[in-house]
Amino acid sequence: MYGQQKRNIIHKSSTAYEQDHSDQRDELAPFHLDRPLSKPTHWTFVVAPDPPHRTPIAGPIPGVQINARIAEDPQGQARILIRLPDNWNGRLVVAGAPGTRSKFNGDFAWSDYVVQKGYAYVAQNKGTLNLRATTAADPTACRLNPALGKDTFVHFYDDDPGMPFTRWAPFMAEAARLGRAAVQIHYGRDAQYTYAVGTSNGGYQVRRAVESYPELFDGGVDWEGTFVDADMPNLLSTLPPAILNYPAYAASGFDPDSKAAKNIRAAGYPPDLITIQGGQPTSLWRVHYLQFWEVTMCQWQKRLDPAYDTYGAGVGNYVYVNRLSVSNVGENLADFRTTGRIRRPLITVAGTMDALLPIDANARAYARRVAAAAREEAGKASPAYRLYEVQNGNHIETFKVTFPQLEFIQPHALQAFDLLVGAIENQAELPPSQCIPCGGTIAKNPAQPGHCTNLLVAGVIQGLCGRREHLSAASIYEGLGDATKERWNAPGF
Predict the structure, then answer these.
(1) 397 closest CA partner among 413, 410, 388
(2) What span, in angstroms and rounded, lies between the C-alpha atoms of 83 and 275?
(3) What are phi and psi of 79, to 5 degrees?
(4) Residue 420 vs residue 9, higher pLDDT
(5) 3-state SS class at 59
(6) Is the pTM above the cut of 0.85?
(7) What is the pLDDT of residues 215-250, one digit of tens each?
(8) How far apart are CA 485 and CA 487, in angstroms?
(9) What is the C-alpha to C-alpha distance for residues 408 and 394, in angstroms, rounded to an integer?
């Protein structure tokens, strides 16, 4: 590893934005958290709420920041970020990276909280840069947004040769090793405890950390981690039905009783939400269709089943079970699957309204896998596992600005972190797996143990969870004027 160190205020205000794109190849220079690195983008705030709802910054936290690359990485893309506060509490937090984001993406979600508490913090980028603009002629090109036209394509670096997804778990472990070495050198003593945290694909890294590297980690919190397995469900089995059926659902006037809507829900997706802003309707499924479903499916298919004709055959027509006999997709998924054989305590926090990684196909699927592994090892002591479901929580925190029916997940993920620390360091009993009601917190004696009964608490209007009045997609559509309906049904809306 090489980089630069500088005595600096590492937390002054939450105004630092990650640099995620391909032109940020050299990230050696330290940055100051009291000024932005770049203009905020869609890629920046995936795992954190909008500014008023982020972790407040109580004041400057002096310390050392190391912003570096890992020289031994043969691909030359591995990045590492280490923050060493002067008021170190003797503990280390290692953060996974969501999506294909950079090591800065956990700043608002995790770093702002733990560094103010005195934890040393290390983050990595799974050994990959994010993406760059390209054209349809690029064999690994992925259309960024179905509404932006045929010329808007991106190239994901982790679809390049030598960049298999199997790198993700080892880079989480390497971050822990580097972080442990850094604190020992800087403070002159070893970290007493090391915790893994992460969101989405970073949550996947947390799961693999406690499954495969118990010598490096004492426990972890995974916030809506990606479930990976060769058996269904997996991303390659759940995304295509949503992509395939969404256009017909939109053409139906967003009728929740249409066949297309039923097909999307049957694939595990939560109910759609529709709101009106500035006289125009916005749909939760629509923003996922335009911003996440297709481009995510393309990225994973290009890596795991590259022989499939992405846009000729169509990503919506991809049938995972049919591809098992004609490709290596099953073996490729199995190579980096989540086994559920946890060897350290783990908490999963997930939202019932996750429309990118539906809860039953991801968080609950992993919980089932953990339970199955524990049954197979009956008679042996199993590390604690908890699943805390956030009623109305969604994968994208900032979507609550548009859809006030949604709930933030971050407060519960941070509470889960504190509960995990208490359980590991003070032998406190973790609250049971439970449904966290809207406006509630993780409770020792939950009103609803286990899973949430409904994915959506109906009647959430103006952020008031539990009110009975609920406007369905169809009723909102019928209430629109003709001009707005015309905009709604326009191609690419």
Answers:
(1) 410
(2) 41
(3) -125, 150
(4) 420
(5) coil
(6) yes
(7) 999 999 999 999 999 999 999 999 999 999 999 999
(8) 5
(9) 7
What does each C-alpha distance from 349 to 77, 96, 172, 363, 377 come to in angstroms?
Answer: 30, 15, 19, 8, 25
Burial code of 133-149, b = ≥16 C-beta within 10 A, e = fewer?
A: ebeeeeebbbbbbbeee
- The residue whose two tokens read 């989480």 is 172
Give the contacts of 431 (CB within 8 A, at least 6 positions apart): 386, 388, 419, 442, 443, 444, 446
Q: What's the pLDDT tens digit per position in 111-136?
A: 999 999 999 999 999 999 999 999 99
Residue with tokens 């910054």: 57
Residue listed under structure tokens 């994968």: 395
Amino acid (1-letter code) at residue 446 = P
- Per DSSP, the three-state class of 277 is strand
Give phi and psi for 135, each to the nearest 5.
-125, 170
Based on DSSP, count helices (H) and strands (E) in the chain, helices before strands: 14, 15
Quick one: which of 254, 233, 157, 216 has its CA closest to 471?
A: 254
Question: Is residue 43 helix, strand or coil?
Answer: coil
- Exposed/middle/buried for 79, CB within 10 Å: 0-12, 13-18, 19+? buried
8 Å CB contact between 362 and 350: yes
* Beta-bridge mates of residue 25: none
Please give the Cα distance from 352 to 355 (Å, whole number).
9
Structural domains of the chain sorted by starting position, each given as residue range(s) with its CATH number in brackets: 1-128+163-228+336-455 (3.40.50.1820), 235-333+474-488 (no CATH)
Residue pointed to by tokens 């950079």 = 102
Give φ, ψ of 111 to 5 degrees.
-60, -45
In whole angstroms, what is the distance from residue 416 CA to residue 205 CA? 17
Phi/psi for 184 (5° steps) reads: -65, -40
Q: List Cα–Cα distances, 491 to 235, 247, 251, 256, 259, in angstroms.
A: 27, 10, 10, 20, 20
Integer Cα distance of 260 and 111 in angstroms = 41
Residue among 198, 191, 190 at smallest CA distance from 224: 198
